[in-house]
Specification:
The complex is a heterodimer. Chain A is mainly β. Chain A has strands at 4-7, 10-13, 19-25, 31-37, 43-50, 56-57, 68-72, 75-80, 89-96, 106-108, 112-116. Chain A has one domain (4-98, 107-116): Immunoglobulins (Immunoglobulin-like). In chain A, strands 2, 4, 5, 6, 9, 10 and 11 form a seven-stranded mixed beta sheet that branches. Chain A is globular. By secondary structure, chain B is mainly beta. Chain B has one domain (9-110): Immunoglobulins (Immunoglobulin-like), CATH 2.60.40.10. Helix content of chain B is 0%, strand content 47%. In chain B, the strands form two sheets. Chain B has a five-stranded mixed beta sheet with strand order 1-9-8-3-4, with no helix packed on it. In chain B, strands 2-7-6-5 form a four-stranded antiparallel beta sheet, with no helix packed on it. Chain B is globular and about 40 Å long. Classes of the chains: A mainly beta, B mainly beta. Chain A binds chain B through residues 1, 4, 31, 33, 41-45, 48, 56, 58, 92, 94, 96-98, 102-111, 113, and chain B through 32, 34, 41-46, 49, 87, 89, 91-93, 95-99, 101-104.
Chain lengths: 117, 111
């Protein structure tokens, strides 16, 4: 299994500012994913980040609001731009764990808890 | 993409066996069934995956009937540390990981 770290673990930001969240994996992975999880709610996929190509965004999420970088096979960033209180959430990074016997399994980072005032 | 339905919450006691059932009536032929566990302030953690019949690992068992329209996660002899949210998902390698995460089942284990 992959070990995933995220920075920062939490932050409190002012509306109108931007925050970049980093995701680091201890091994090379093809696919990385960014999720949002409201407190007490389920996970919503924001986008899939592949190295060497633009991220693929899910319905309701756009690149101008959530730009993503994927410079290599072990690292990705998600930026939450022009933040509003509605962006307060937990942001999770995950990676593809399907290289073994399982399909469609993912390994998750610890998450970044964002509060926008 | 198959949608899943699970109980919102369940309670049990230490030492008991807990069974959480998930329904997925429109599961496709190529779909696998995967369960995740999530503790507060942590990302979800893979528990078990299966396609049909029964799968067992060191943590849990997964029972899948022949029609595959439901599945049951079985946790033997639970402890307080098993208190968490459990998610059931279905999908295949061709779904581009567009898995639908349902509300999950909040399991509370009491002493």
């Amino acid at each position: 299994s992959a070990v995933i770290s995220q920075k920062p673990s939490r932050d409190i930001c002012q509306r109108g500012t931007s925050l970049t969240i980093q995701c680091q994996v201890d091994s090379q992975v093809t696919m990385m994913f960014w999720y949002r999880q409201q407190p007490g709610q389920s996970l919503t996929l924001i986008a899939t980040a592949n190295q060497g190509s633009e991220a693929t965004y899910e319905s309701g999420f756009v690149i101008d609001k959530f730009p993503i970088s994927r410079p290599n096979l072990t690292f990705s960033t998600l930026t939450v731009s022009n933040m509003s209180p509605e962006d307060s959430s937990i942001y999770l990074c995950s990676v593809d764990g399907s290289s073994g016997a399982h399909t469609d399994t993912q390994y998750f980072g610890p998450g970044t808890r964002l509060t926008v005032l | 993409l198959a949608k899943t339905t699970q109980p919102i919450s369940m309670d049990s006691y230490e030492g008991q066996e807990v069974n959480i059932t998930c329904s997925h009536n429109n599961i496709a032929t190529n779909d696998y069934i995967t369960w995740y566990q999530q503790f507060p302030s942590q990302g979800p953690r893979f528990i078990i995956q299966g396609y049909k019949t029964k799968v067992t690992n060191e943590v849990a068992s997964l029972f899948i009937p022949a029609d595959r329209k439901s599945s049951t996660l079985s946790l033997p002899r639970v402890s307080l540390s098993d208190t968490a949210v459990y998610y059931c998902l279905v999908g295949d390698s061709g779904s581009n990981y567009q898995l639908i995460w349902g509300a999950g089942t909040k399991l509370i284990i009491k002493p």
